[in-house]
Amino acid sequence: MVDLEKHIKEQRLLLDADKPREGHEDRFREKLANEPVRRINFRHVLQVAASIAVILASAIVLIRSSNSGDKVAVLEIPASVLEADQYYTTQVDQRVDQIRAFTFDNVNEKDVLLEELEEMNTYQQQLMNDLEANPDDERVINAMIKHYQLKLDVMDQIIYQLNQLKTETDKDNEKKSI
After folding, report:
1. S-S: 20 plus which of 11, 24, 87, 132, CB 3.0-4.6 Å?
2. The domain containing residue 10 runs over which residues?
3. Residue 148 shares a structural domain with residue 85
4. Dihedrals φ, ψ of 162, to 5°?
């Protein structure tokens, strides 16, 4: 303890200076350059997708509990709703094909991701069943459209992150080959 006090007293002028010692900025930049690059964790993406699937499943339960299930469908589903369903289904299928086209380091990760997306399809089928039972219920139609939009957003985010990983991997491979 005495040595520390003695050292501080001897170096007091250097410690009280307003400016850091020479080479401080260079040492700081060197430390920043050596800091590892953050990568997107694919498991985190899967956890987010699973969370969204749980939220969507909860929405189904809420919609079903608010509607009386004793009604019998007398009317047909409006053509505009069927057209919207066809449009969104086409968009979803295109994105699924894009995701399938990516090469994964681990095949299990790809399978888990595709399973999560498939679970979102079961929610869509439940919404279609609700729509058949209540074709004029705007809540079901809105829930169906929001589900498709959310699913497309999730898939776009997954594709974006997969493209980022691919770009980073390509850059790393270029550096290694140089």
Report:
1. 24
2. 2-33
3. yes
4. -65, -40
Q: What's the structural domain count of the chain? A: 2
Q: Amino acid identity, residue 92?
A: V
Length of the chain: 178
Token pair for residue 120? 């979102």
112-140 burial: b if 16+ Cβ within 10 Å, else e = bbeebbebbeebbebbbebbebbbebeeb
Residue 139 neighbours by CB under 8 Å, 6+ apart: 63, 66, 67
Q: Do 46 and 29 lie in a common domain? A: no
Could you tell me if 73 and 135 are in contact, meaning their C-beta atoms sit under 8 angstroms apart?
yes
**pLDDT by residue, tens only, the chain of 178 residues:** 778 888 888 877 776 767 777 787 888 788 877 776 667 777 878 888 888 888 888 888 878 776 655 444 445 777 888 888 889 889 888 988 888 888 877 778 878 888 887 887 888 888 888 888 877 788 888 888 888 888 888 888 888 888 888 888 777 666 665 5
